[in-house]
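I hope you will forgive my troubling you with a question about protein structure. You will find the record immediately after this paragraph.
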Amino acid sequence: MSRYADRFTALLDACVLAGALRRNMLLSLAEAGLFRPRWSNRVLDETQRAIARITKGDTDGSRQRAAINAAFPEAMVTGYEIFEGRLALPDPDDNHVLAAAIATSASVIVTDNLADFPPEALAPHAIQAISADDFIADIIELDPSEAILALRRMRERFRNPALNVAALIHKSEAQGLLQVATFMDEYQSSL
């Protein structure tokens, strides 16, 4: 395990776990030990529903949820409910995400819904909200060789369809992972 995972915990929001590319990138970097991923059952409930919406019912998301849980059994946050009632995010339905982050002492909440997690609401808990693009780019910058190796392993797992480096970079750009695509372009000979 990498030296980073012991000191860096990130709560992953459902919006970054729902899409296959973001989910695979984040979990591949976590598998490499570059950070400790955390989520709650409620986050996974939302993820599962979002996967079903994204795939237009072709899958109910249960297979992906089971794979997430099997790969990272230690990532489940429990006991966060005691914090939930004391929080006041713009959307009260997001309080459970911040509560889970507090309960697990996460440094960041990785979310693409940044407006739902304003800095002034997170600052008292020493937590920041960061987009998936920024977070993945930061992880790559922290340890480029380990991160690119993890992303290469991820790319090689794609079989149906297989993804070559150019296709992965293009897909990343198309999904708004512009910083990640730039890094991958820079390191494409290793990817």
Remarks:
- The chain has eleven helices and four strands.
